[in-house]
Predict the structure.
Amino acid sequence: MKTISIVIPVYNEEKGFKKFYSEMLEPELKKLSYNYEVILVDDGSRDKTLEIVQGMAESDSHIKVVAFSRNFGKEVALTAGIREAIGDAIMTIDADGQQPPKLIPEFIEKWEQGGEIVIGVRGKYEKHGLVAKIGSKFFYKILRGMGVKDTVPGSTDFRLIDRAVADEYNELTEHGRITRGLMDWMGFKKVYIDYIYGNRLAGKPSYNFGKLFGLAIDSFISLSTTPLVIFGWIGVFITVASFILGVFVGIEEFILGDPIGLKWTGTTCVSIFISFLIGLVLISQAITALYISHIHAEAQGRPLYIIDRKNSRNLKNGKAKKA
Ligand code: UDP
Ligand code: MG
């Protein structure tokens, strides 16, 4: 019999998680005609989440707990869970009930029909706040503009991947990672399922605008080097334009004696150009710095996460693999 692994990142979910597991998720898993395992990655929760999930693992051998030594973020938690999974297919799902476990059989069915990455897509049936709508529209527009064409708008982490995809995914070593972006980049046969993003059972979402914005910037940087190219071209354009303007002013003012009556003063021209160029240099420096910071993180070669072994339960790996 095939095994399905369910990977769930949990961070400060003490209020709703048990309910989510026993009322929404477990009934679905029990109905399946597959073996299953559930990997709970505690992402350094500061509340009672860890104790709760440990308790669950002690009374149910389907459940494994990966306990991080601190908060490493959802993307890394997903990665750790996928590395720990032994299933023939691996399903990732949020801990807060916003992604409906009822659809798991549908994901599995699409997988059995040959889909290697089955992706939950939100948006089609939803009403969004204006800011979120515009924000996500821009995000995908920019991504597309940068040449990243593999991401369908509304794709989420609610997805199922085949063992083959997981094996390849586990080979990826980068640190600034967006799980879904990397998977979209990997190729394989993709199938999409529309769903409605529900309300949280309890607790607060931990991704605020600032975090999401940071995530968007990370996606741009890790998936594309177009920003560097764009600024290269802007630099070229400005240099050429200022050269032409400089020649024009030189001839109009100093050789022909200002026949059009523009009354250029040298100081005006110089100050405009200097401030313009300084701005340009600053922007391109900032962008270069972002890339360098990514290179820096890769070069450090630190493990992607650290597992707190004594707090973890039922794990297969003796030690965390290096990233
Ligand atoms: N999460 C996590 N680490 C974090 C933040 C969130 O593992 O640093 C988990 C969280 O417990 C939940 C999922 O990631 O299972 C999605 O988080 P949240 O509901 O805050 O995000 P949103 O619903 O806004 O995408
Ligand atoms: Mg949520």
